[in-house]
């Protein structure tokens, strides 16, 4: 990463962290993936029940492997025969891992979901939610965040899952009603009523989609 871009991201992250604080959420800055991994593990006590949505960022910093190897009750829905049961277990988990499709400079997060298990767990249920968010996902405002979620994150994920949606074929949102659409539920997280529940680790790297 260019040195000037890196420094700009570092300064911008501090602005986002202060914005999150004003919204009763806690933000952290990680200079790289290794620091992000350490911060995340500090937030997850051993023996905790931990689960997640499809957060590629958690995989990319090595967090999922550490949880599988360590003394944690990691609920791996991909390894469960009954995926619905695994998803439902998330609502009573100690920790839920996620990323954000986009986050604004003033600390508002936007997430889009197909099955809606991820956005529903973010909104309510798990005792703690830990977000791993690359600085590539920071947008100027809510309009920019929504555009990023719909025109970057959604098409990329549709392609990743091999779905037959217009955005998977063109790379941009058609506001479709395709049976394969993953844009079923939109969650805007602008404030946390419960202090200490939502934690956001901003990583000075490009993570996820």
Task: Describe this protein's structure.
42% of the residues are buried. The protein is 39% helix and 21% strand. The chain is built from eight helices and ten strands. The strands form two sheets. The protein has a six-stranded parallel β-sheet, sandwiched between helices. It has a four-stranded mixed β-sheet with strand order 8-5-6-9, with helices on both faces. The radius of gyration is 16 Å and the shape is globular. With 209 residues, the chain is an alpha/beta fold. A hairpin with a 4-residue loop joins strand 5 (102-104) and strand 6 (109-113). It has a single domain (3-203), classed as 3-Layer(aba) Sandwich (Rossmann fold).
Architecture blueprint of SSEs:
Elements: H1 3-22, E1 26-30, H2 33-43, E2 49-52, H3 56-60, H4 63-69, E3 73-74, H5 83-89, E4 95-98, E5 102-104, E6 109-113, H6 117-123, E7 128-134, E8 138-139, H7 142-160, H8 166-170, E9 185-189, E10 198-203
Parallel strand pairs: 1-10, 2-3, 2-4, 4-7, 5-8, 7-10
Antiparallel strand pairs: 5-6, 6-9
Give the key terms.
four-stranded mixed beta sheet; globular; six-stranded parallel beta sheet; 21% strand; alpha/beta; 209 residues
Query: Which parts are unreliable, with pLDDT below 50 for 5 consecutive residues or more?
Result: none
Instruction: Please report the first level of CATH classification, the CATH class.
Output: Alpha Beta
CATH topology: Rossmann fold
Describe the strand arrangement of the main beta sheet, using strand numbers.
1-10-7-4-2-3
Overall outline: globular
Q: What is the C-alpha radius of gyration, as a whole number of Å? A: 16 Å
Which structural class matches the secondary elements?
alpha/beta
Helix content: 25-40%
Oligomer: single chain
* Assigned CATH superfamily: NagB/RpiA/CoA transferase-like
Total beta-strand segments: 10
């Amino acid at each position: 990463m260019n040195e000037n871009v890196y420094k700009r991201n570092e300064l911008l992250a501090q602005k986002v962290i202060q914005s999150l604080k004003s919204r009763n959420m806690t933000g952290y800055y990680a200079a790289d993936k290794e620091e992000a991994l350490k911060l995340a593990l500090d937030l997850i006590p051993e023996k905790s029940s931990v689960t997640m949505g499809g957060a590629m960022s958690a995989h990319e910093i090595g967090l999922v492997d550490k949880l599988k190897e360590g003394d944690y009750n990691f609920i791996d829905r991909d390894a469960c025969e009954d995926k619905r049961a695994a998803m439902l277990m998330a609502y009573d988990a100690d920790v839920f891992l996620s990323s954000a499709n986009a986050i604004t400079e003033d600390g508002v997060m936007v997430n889009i979901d197909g099955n809606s298990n991820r956005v529903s767990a973010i909104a309510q249920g798990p005792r703690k939610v830990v977000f791993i968010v690359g600085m590539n996902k920071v947008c100027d405002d809510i309009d920019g965040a929504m555009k990023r979620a719909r025109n970057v994150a959604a098409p990329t994920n549709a392609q990743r899952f091999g779905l037959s949606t217009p955005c998977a074929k063109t790379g941009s949102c058609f506001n479709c009603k395709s049976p394969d659409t993953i844009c079923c539920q939109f969650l805007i997280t602008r404030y946390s009523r419960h202090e200490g529940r939502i934690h956001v680790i901003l990583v000075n790297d490009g993570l996820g989609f």
